[in-house]
């Protein structure tokens, strides 16, 4: 009987003599949870991918009466604790909802590797007998029977075909999803005050409509970010449109007030020598300027030499 970090290995075998090992131990928690009673709950990890409540019940009913079974698919738990649900706005005051795409996974999909389960028994005695099941099945593992009938799971090629089909939803569903996403995006763009209110409520998940904040303005009226890069704006057939509703950038109130008080700051503040070709071009211009200055100086020196004429100094000596 194998033990590892407090878990005991419980082997089960398939019809083709393949052995799969689950690991069990008594559920322990610092909180008194009514869903998982401490003295009646068994924690099971590494359940087979085709596990159902029925297959687990068939296994653990050999230890006693099973009250309930809770399966935990690792594919469903990824990232659940990373985000906090945002507060819902009042009815009619928020943006339209995005029409979701159909589920991309079969409804009876297989469990991910290392999925777990909680098995709750009716009494403590049944739990104690369940802990001794690994010793009972050590030499002759329990036969893991596949579900049949209405509880049958899609496995093998049937599962892959169904998953392939679901990952290619009909064009009508894709169009509804895209149209609703664009409608939500446009609504948030036209209601910046709503987004500010959501931020004040602690909503950190709604990111549509924030845009890149403008820090300065170029000489031709283009918006520049803090690094001096031009912020891309919505364009029309003939170039960038001038309407405020068509911009993707957001000018902060502080920057707008600063532009009113200091109009000279509207001049371009683009970075110099940021790119290598800018540095090379600047050096080339400096060398050309030095060469031109050198040639000009040579001409001036030649002109001065040509205009220089020797004028002898005559001395007169008075005769006695």
UniProtKB/TrEMBL annotation:
Biological process terms in GO annotation: ribosomal small subunit assembly; rRNA processing
Entry-linked InterPro entries: Nucleotide-bd_a/b_plait_sf, RBD_domain_sf, RRM_Rrp7, RRP7, RRP7_C
Region feature (Disordered): 80-111
Domain Ribosomal RNA-processing protein 7 C-terminal: 221-312
Gene3D superfamilies registered for this protein in UniProt: 3.30.70.330, 6.10.250.1770
GO molecular function: nucleic acid binding
CDD domains: dRRM_Rrp7p, RRP7_Rrp7p
One Gene Ontology term, aspect cellular component: CURI complex
Domain Rrp7 RRM-like N-terminal: 3-68
Signal peptide: none
Family: Belongs to the RRP7 family.
Identification of the protein by name: RRM domain-containing protein
